[in-house]
Structure formats: C-alpha cells, structure tokens
Design brief:
Order of helices and strands: EEHHEEEHEHEE
Strand content: 25-35%
Radius of gyration: 16 Å
CATH topology: Aminopeptidase
Low-confidence stretches: 1-5
Shape: globular
Strand order of the largest sheet: 1-2-3-4-5-6-8-7
CATH superfamily: Gcn5-related N-acetyltransferase (GNAT)
CATH class: Alpha Beta
Helix content: 10-25%
Distance between the termini: 42 Å
Number of strands: 8
Number of domains: 1
Oligomer: single chain
Structural class: alpha+beta
C-alpha cells in the first residue's frame, strides 16, 4: 500500500477498493489539470472532468451520500469515480460511475456500484437507487446487472434502459 493511502472514517471499503469522498484539493487538481502521484496514469477520465466541473453548482454531491473516488486498496491509486446524485428525488437516488480504461475488466465498477448502492439505503428516506444506461454500452449494462440492479424500462427513442435497486425486504424471525 502506498504511503499516501490510509483509511478515513468516511471511507467505504470493499475487498479490493476504497470509496473516498472527493476533497476540495482533488477537485481543484482535476479542474487545473494537475497530476497527483496517487492517481492512476489515465485518471481523471472525461467523465471525472465533467463531474468535477459540476461540484460548484451541486455542493451536496460532495457530502456523505455524494460522489467518491474509487481507490485500489493494494496500491492506493485513484482509478475512477462513483457517485450518488444527492439529494434524493421522492426517495430515489441516481448513481453514476466510471473506471479508467487501464483498470476496466477487473470488476471494479461492479464492486463499487454494489457498495455504494448498499450505502445509499442507509440514508434516511432512500428506497430506490437507479441508473440510466445506453443500450449500446453492454459493459455498463453488465455492471448494473452484476451489482444487483434490475432493468425496469427502456426508451427506444433514446436508446437507453433504466435500472433500479430497492433495499432487500427485512427478514422475519
């Protein structure tokens, strides 16, 4: 593990990843084109630039239930980002994610999506996590399905599908 990397109280950890809230300095680094040593060579991707540019308009996205960087536990490198678009709309939160090209195909997006979806259900009043995906993006469709989201509608004109997850029903004893 790198000397930069250490767990914080607000991190979400999976077997191979840590999901860490964006810091203002990291947002600034993306916007300014800086290259911190703890970023994978191809981070940030285009989507990370877009999201970083929107944080000023949506400060809640940087909160407890907002956007996070995806960090490899083994080496401490930032390899993507994932986020919930806070606040909820009638109890529903949209999720979005991206992993840099050099780390795709390892299951990181699925692992991170599963973890953040489970965490979303700990927020008061949240009962649905959803995502919209282009039908021409089978990799992203597989991520959502493997993370436990189910397709509930398609929009032929927009060539998209909507996926959603709801919390598991409480078990009765």
């Amino acid at each position: 593990m790198s000397s930069f990397f250490s767990m914080t109280d607000t991190d979400l950890a999976t077997d191979r990843l840590v999901l860490r809230r964006w810091t203002p300095s990291e947002v600034t680094a993306v916007l300014d084109g800086a290259r911190p040593a703890h970023w994978a060579e191809d981070f940030p991707a285009e989507g990370d630039h877009v999201i970083a540019g929107l944080f000023a308009e949506h400060p809640a996205w940087l909160g407890q239930y907002g956007h996070r960087q995806v960090i490899e536990r083994a080496g401490g490198l930032v390899v993507g980002s994932i986020g919930l678009f806070w606040p909820p709309d009638n109890g529903a939160l949209e999720i979005g994610y991206g992993i840099v090209a050099s780390r795709r195909g390892r299951g990181y997006a699925t692992e991170a999506t599963r973890a953040l979806t489970e965490f979303a259900f700990t927020a008061p009043g949240v009962h649905t996590v959803h995502a919209t995906v282009e039908l021409a993006n089978p990799s992203s469709i597989r991520v959502l399905e493997k993370a436990g989201l189910q397709c509930w509608s398609t929009e032929a004109e927009e060539n998209t599908a909507r996926y959603r997850a709801t919390p598991p029903a409480p078990t009765q004893r």
